[in-house]
Amino acid sequence: MLMLTSVLTTGALALTACGSRGDSGSKSSSGTTVVIGVDAPLTGQNSATGLGIQYGAQLAVDDANKNKTVPGVTFKITALDDKALPATGQQNATTLVADPNVLGVVGPLNSGVAQSMQQVFNTANLVEISPSNTSVPLTQGPAWASGKKTRPYKTYFRTATTDALQGAYAADYAYNTLKKKKAYIVDDKQPYGAGLAGIFSEQFTKLGGKVIGTDHVNTGDTDFSTLSTKVKNSGADMLYYGGQYDESSLLTKQLKAAGAQIPLFGGDGMYSDTYITNAGSASAGDLATSVGAPVDTLPAAQQFIKDYKAAGYKGDYQTYGGYSYDATTAIIKAVGKTVTNGKIPSDARSKIVDAVQASNFDGITGKVSFDQYGDTTNKQLTAYEVKSGKWVAVKSGTYSGS
C-alpha cells in the first residue's frame, strides 16, 4: 500500500510552515514545491495499468527535478487509489482540489471514474489530463455521435485517442484483415466498455459483417460458463469484448474450455501483460487495440523504459506509462509558463489550464498537443495479437475510414 497519509500530511505541514496562502505551491529554503496529483486504481481491479500510470508520472517528475526544468520549483507526486470506483474517484478529486499545492492531476485510468471527477476539477480550475480515458463524451459531449460536439469541461484533457477511432480501427482490422464476418459482442456495461463495443458493432456492420449475438457482464464477474456456451452455439467466428482485462482474461479461458476456438478481441483496457498471465495459453491468438504506437519501438521512449525497469516499478508501463509521462510533462511545462521569477501566482491553476491547452512539444510517445475539445492530436493506434505468450504488434497506423 502507498503511504498516502504521510504524503498529504507532509504537504499540509509545508503549506502551514510557509505562512503564505496567497500563492499556490509551498515554499521552503530550497524553493517552491508543486504537487501533481495522480488518480488511478493502485490496488485491486485494473491495478497493473493503474500503477503504470503512477510510475510514469513519477519518472516525469524525477526527470524535471533532475534537469531543473522549472528553475526554483521542485515537483512531487501525490498518488491516490480510486480502486476503479467512480465514488472513490470523486472523493479523491475533492481531496486533491483541497490541497493548494496541487496544480495539476494525471488520471484517472477509467472513463467511468473520470465522469465523476470532471465537475470537481472544473469548478476549481484544476487541470486534469488522463493518459488512458477513451470514452468520447468526456471531451465531445453526449450528442457527439449526431455531430453536435460540445466540450463539457475546459479543464479536462487526454493524451489517449478516443473510442470513436479505436472501435472503428478494430472493426476494420477484424473484417478486412482477419476476414471475420460473424461477431458476438459483449461489454461490461461501463462507459468505456459499452461505448467501445457499440462503436465496433456499428462499424463492423457498416463494413458488411454481422453481429449475431450481444450480451453484457458485470465488472467483478468470474463465471462466464453460460455466456461461453451461448457464444459457441451462435456460430460466431470472433468475440469482441468491451471492457477491462480482469473479466476478459477469465472469459477467454472459459470460452476456449467450452470448445469455442475463436479469438477474443478487445480494446486498450485489455492490452496488458496481466491479461496473458491470467488467461495463460487460452490467450493465444487473442487481439487488442491500444492507443499510440508500441512504446518499446519509440526511440524517444527508450530511456523512460530503461529507467522504469531500473527502478523496479510494478505495473505495466507499456500500456499507458508513456502517455502518463507525457501528460505529467505537459503539466510541468505549463507550470513553467506560469511561474514568474520563481513565484507561483494565486490564480496559477487557471493559468495552467490555458497553458496546457496551448501545449505543443515532442513527448516520448509523439507530438503532445490538444484540439479544441481537449483531445490529443496524436491519432496513432496499434492492433496487437498474443503470440508465443506475448503481445505482438500486427498493425499500426491511423484510422481514416468513414
From TrEMBL:
InterPro entries: Leu-bd, Peripla_BP_I
Cross-referenced CDD domains: PBP1_ABC_LIVBP-like
Taxonomy, superkingdom: Bacteria
Domain Leucine-binding protein, chain residue ranges per copy: 33-389
Any Pfam family: Peripla_BP_6
Keyword ATP-binding belongs to the record: no
Gene3D superfamilies, alphabetized: 3.40.50.2300
Key words of the record: Signal
Segments crossing the lipid bilayer: none
Similarity annotation: Belongs to the leucine-binding protein family.
Protein known as: Branched-chain amino acid ABC transporter substrate-binding protein
Organism annotation: Actinacidiphila oryziradicis
